[in-house]
Amino acid sequence: MTLPDERYRAVVQTKKFLEELLTTPRIPKAVKDNARWCLRHYPSEWDMKRAAEYTPEVFQEKMEPLYRMVKQYQQDKEDGK
After folding, report:
1. How does DSSP assign 15-38, residue by residue?
2. What is the maximum span of the chain, computed from C-alpha positions, in angstroms?
3. Is the pLDDT of residue 58 over 80?
4. How far apart are CA 55 and CA 78, in angstroms?
5. CA 51 to CA 45: how far, in whole Å?
6. Alpha carbon 62 to chain centroid distance?
7. Residue 59 backbone dihedrals phi, psi, to 5 degrees
8. 34-59 mean pLDDT
9. Count of C-beta atoms within a 10 Å radius of residue 51
10. Across all residues in the chain, what is the average pLDDT?
11. Which residues 6+ apart lie within 8 Å of 79 measured at CB?
12. What global pTM score does this model have?
C-alpha cells in the first residue's frame, strides 16, 4: 500500500513529467496534446499543500521518519506481510 508522502510525491512528479513532455522535441503531437489535456485541471502546488493540510492521511508533503516507520508497519500488518 502507498504511504501519504509517496502519494504526494507521485502526483508532483507526474505533473513534472507531463510538463517535460510538452517541451521535449520529437514527441508526437498527439502525445503532447494528451499531456496538455491532462494538465488542464491537474492539481497545482497550492492544491497539493491544501490537500496535505486537510487530509494528511491521504497526502503528506513529508513524514517524520518515526511516524513513517509506524505507518509502514501498520500497512504491512493490514496487508498480511
Report:
1. HHHHHHHHH-TT--HHHHHHHHHH
2. 46
3. yes
4. 21
5. 10
6. 12
7. -130, 135
8. 96
9. 19
10. 92
11. 1
12. 0.78
Q: Which cell goes with 6?
A: 509517496
Handedness of CA 13, 7, 63, 59 (dihedral sign): positive
Cα separation, 66 vs 72, whole angstroms: 10
26 φψ region: left (φ > 0), alpha (ψ -120 to 50), beta (else): left
Q: For 58, which DSSP code? A: T
Average pLDDT over residues 23-30: 96
Using the predicted structure, report yes or no on whether residue 29 has a pLDDT greater than 70: yes
Of 36, 32, 30, 39, give the one whose Cα is nearest residue 12: 39
Residue type, position 33, single letter:
D
